Amino acid sequence: MRYAINPWMREDTEVDTGLARAQWETLIDAYRDHGHRVEFIEPVVGLPDMVFAANSALVLGGRVFGSRFHAPQRRPEQLAYERWFKAAGFDVHPPESVCEGEGDLVPAGPFVLAGTGFRTTRAAHQEVQEFFGVPTISLLLVDPYFYHLDTALFVLDDQNIAYYPEAFSPGSREVLQRLYPDALIATRDDAMAFGLNSVSDGRHVFVAPRATGLIDQLTDRGYVPVPVDLSELHKAGGGIKCCTQEIR
């Protein structure tokens, strides 16, 4: 790796780029096999984290709230993604504060759940609420391994979520308990296996295969787990959701 900007990254770690690409293509195939449309952005040489497209923006109601990355190494991605959205016919609102897109902004029914503590700032949460007019609920992350909200929580459907409580401050845990008393609660093992960096379409849940306890819980709740192994990308601190920017 060329640099390390989160606890999962190690500069001396060797990444099998062929395997990483094959795993990424498996994710694309899984989405298409389940009826989802997939679009692509051309990679830019020297910007390896562009694969984590979720961090580029939040798209909600056809409106795009862009990114302003915390790490200098990722800031050039902002322009590349802005160009893609504009070419696709979207206007892009650039944030004034540090904001890392769907990494920390998770639409959940009538709310946007918004993470802070390591990357996206609380000021950005306020910008999001003003821009979309959607109640935006700040949640404080406290464990560096779960530096983005999408590593600690994902939306199952419009009514419910799955999350790992210990990734959050006591007050934020209480907020989640009040909002989602029937939430699916993940263990640390499943969270560390990137089980919560998942994507749900309301029935199928694209999930890391090593999150076996979470997969069992999903099955018990009536969801259909679709295991997709992105173990090479885990070395950079990302998984299924990190690679997926949802266009709503």
From TrEMBL:
Keywords: Hydrolase
Keyword Aminoacyl-tRNA synthetase listed: no
Family statement drawn from the similarity comment of this UniProt entry: Belongs to the DDAH family.
NCBIfam families on file: DiMArgaseDdahMtb
Protein name per its UniProtKB record: N-dimethylarginine dimethylaminohydrolase
Originating organism: Streptomyces demainii
Top-level taxonomy: Bacteria, Bacillati, Actinomycetota, Actinomycetes, Kitasatosporales
